[in-house]
Amino acid sequence: MEVILQNLTKKFPGRDRRKKKDIIAVSDFSFRIPDGKLIGLLGPSGCGKSTTLNLISGLVKPTAGRIFFGEDDVTDLPPEHRGIGLVFQNYALYPHLTVMQNILFPLQNLKGRDRLTKAEMAEKAREAAGLVQIEELLDRKPGELSGGQQQRVAIARALVKRPKVLLLDEPLSNLDARLRLQTREEIRRIQRETGITTIFVTHDQEEAMSISDMIVVMKEGIVQQIGRPQEVYDNPANLFVARFLGTPPVNVFDGKIRDGRLYIGAEAVLEGLEVFADPMPEEVCVAVRPEGFRLRENGVLSCELSGVEVMGRDISVVSRNKFSLNPQIRSIISTENQPDFESHVVRFDLIPRKVFVFRRDTEERIG
Ligand code: ATP
User: Where does the record place the ABC transporter domain (predicted)?
Assistant: First the structure.
């Protein structure tokens, strides 16, 4: 099912009524979500991710804008008539019911032509349990399950009515690191198997990047960028997006542009720079991905070596530079190319496609 968001806006009344200042949780959000895709809604706490999901589910009414599921305008429909499956961070299972009864629950109140016989309900519940591989747990109560198993039950319950759209709000945040990894792969597999359009909220960029067909990066209610994860990583629209994606994070420097050359301090670090700005600002921010550094004896950027962390296949070289806006510069280098540990200075060349240039004032990308 295609989901179309048209100029969606949600304002909440501000806490200080006298000032009459609304909180704009979501601002003028338009996006045509393609059928059958997994979309990751991503951003820091308070950026409006959950509100966007709640607008799509119908739990929250928009202040302005419309929502379509395919051809149908669902903006004024209550959640139960939208054909959605919802999964929350805290699973929201009924503790006194068995796993089977929890999964059956959404089928029990179907009315009219949608009503099912007991046998039909049981079959659908078993099918949903099979999808998330919990058939052997059907007689247990939620209290007798691990966090990961409870999350699977919540997903089975959301899938049992074969929703048109599956909405997941931080579904992995109560799981430990290993289970998170496993469960996110699981969500991807289930989504591929069912082909249900799925929208997934997370503040964890790695999680969103690893399983989404497309990501939406939000900040303060405003969509910053939409695209395929690799596309957004390789072409961030602004400094916020560049900083938000990637571990270790991008390294940011104060830079200058003069005669088509990019400088960090007195060192010209890139020649023949393509910058899209008119007039061209002189002072800029330069961001370099950790994998954008090459150790070279005569490299263009000199930094003070402060440490090396071995990470198996690669090493992380930690260094400092007066013009760096991060307290430390982190570069990822292959183990074959170790720095000279005796020396206090390391020199790098920069890989042009891993270097981004931003305006200092608006933080917009210009090169
Ligand atoms: P988190 O990751 O912390 O859940 P989020 O990105 O999901 O954050 P939202 O929960 O959508 O963000 O909140 C966006 C903004 O709207 C925040 O400033 C929040 O305080 C505000 N907000 C959300 N719900 C309400 C509400 N019911 N009443 C008033 N303000 C609200």
Answer: 3-245
User: What ipTM was assigned to the predicted interfaces of this complex?
Assistant: 0.97
User: Which atom of ligand 1 is found nearest the CA of 53?
Assistant: 11
**C-beta 48 within 6 A of ligand 1:** yes
In eight-state DSSP terms, residue 207 is H
Which one of 42, 47, 224 would you pick to mutate in the ligand 1 pocket, going by the greatest count of ligand atoms within 8 A of its CB?
47
Report DSSP state, residue 34: P
How many whole angstroms separate alpha carbon 132 and alpha carbon 187? Answer: 9
Q: Determine the structural domain holding residue 218 and report its residue range.
A: 3-243
pTM to 2 decimal places? 0.91
Distance CA 100, CA 182 (A): 23
Residues 6 or more apart in contact with residue 342 via CB below 8 angstroms:
none
Tell me which of 16, 42, 49 to substitute to probe ligand 1's pocket, judged by most ligand atoms within 8 Å of the beta carbon: 49
Choose among 38, 37, 41, 43: nearest CA to 54.
Answer: 41
User: How many angstroms does the Cα of residue 220 sit away from the middle of ligand 1?
Assistant: 10
Out of 243, 272, 294, a domain closes at: 243
Residues 68 and 11 in one domain: yes
Please give the tally of structural domains in the chain.
2
Choosing from 9, 23, 199, 216 the residue with most ligand 1 atoms within 8 A of its CB, the one to mutate for a pocket test is 23
- Kindly state whether residues 232 and 260 are assigned to the same domain: no
Residue-wise pLDDT tens digits, 187-228: 999 999 999 999 999 999 999 999 999 999 999 999 999 999
